[in-house]
Every structure is written in C-alpha cells, then in structure tokens.
C-alpha cells in the first residue's frame, strides 16, 4: 500500500493515496484498541479452536487467518537487470521515479502494476516507453484508457526486453524485440514488472 500513488477501487472511497489509506487504517485500529505487532510468520498451525500463528517474536491464537502477502517480483531474468539494480533498474516507481525527472524510462510488463506505475511515471519523467509482450494492454479499463490518452507514453506492443545496457555507473538503454526485429532505445531507467505476481 505504501508504494501506491493512487487507489481508485477501494469500497466507499473514490480516490486516495496508499500512505493515506495506511494512516486511516492505523487510526481505525487505534480507536478499536487493536494491537499491531510486526514480525515474520514462521508457521501457521491448525488446531481444534482455530489457528496458532508462530512468528519470530511471539505466538498467537486466533479463530481465523488472512494471508495477504502483497506482490512479489520474480525478476532478474533480463540480461543486465541484476547488474544495474540501484543504477537505473528499479521495482518501485513511487520510490525512485523522481530520480528520473526530465529523463526517459522504460517500463516492462502488461499487468495492473506495470500499467499503474507507467501512469505514475508519466507525471514525473519526460517519456515512458511501455514494453508489452502482447497485442493489447491488459489491465483495468480506466487505466488502459488513461495510458492511451497520455501523450508522453509510447507503447511497444508484441515486444520483449532482451537486454538492459549501461556503463559502469548507470543504465543507458534497453534492447527490445518487436515481432523479431530488435531495436535499442535510450533510457535512463528501467522498471521491470513482467514477472510480478
């Protein structure tokens, strides 16, 4: 939630930012006197009365368990991706987008995360090169329509990122393959979301 710039599909609220929702949830839990703890869950055990959740700091007895793991990036599959992490490769547009103000960046992916991050970046950077491994954008209709109307977003359909290139300090370009034809595009940053699950 903390990384989401805008949330438009939360019941009862038309539009808000992720950090704002986190603050509101925290205030609500405080009003209800709900204790919040942090830790890594090691095991969840079923017992006759419900569940026992064992974390690295304590054990909890509960009637129900909600597993909300968030998104996982299964990346580092593109040649150059691992080498340029922190040097132009990022997985969080709201965290790192401002580093690329006035520059061109590439976003690779065709899912809600990739499309939402593309829209966010379009308000920060000079141009966004959205590389999509499909013949159409796949995401919420409102997001897809917004991308199609945004002038500084270039969409490369039926394309894959083959390589991320750079020098000793930072990313300088991406090589993309569009229907068997390769081209190199100059960018200062790359946001790979193709492997987000």
Task: Give a topology summary.
Elements: H1 18-31, E1 41-47, E2 50-55, E3 59-62, H2 93-96, E4 104-108, H3 112-122, E5 127-131, H4 141-149, E6 153-156, E7 159-166, E8 171-178, E9 181-186, E10 189-192
How would you portray this structure in words?
This protein is an alpha/beta fold and 197 residues long. Helices cover 19% and strands 29% of the residues. The chain contains 4 helices and 10 strands; from the N terminus they run H-E-E-E-H-E-H-E-H-E-E-E-E-E. Strand 1 (41-47) and strand 2 (50-55) form a beta hairpin. Helix 3 runs parallel beside helix 4 (141-149). The chain is elongated and about 60 Å long. The mean pLDDT is 88.
Outline of the structure:
The protein contains 4 helices and 10 strands; from the N terminus they run H-E-E-E-H-E-H-E-H-E-E-E-E-E. It has 197 residues and is α/β, with parallel strands linked by helices.
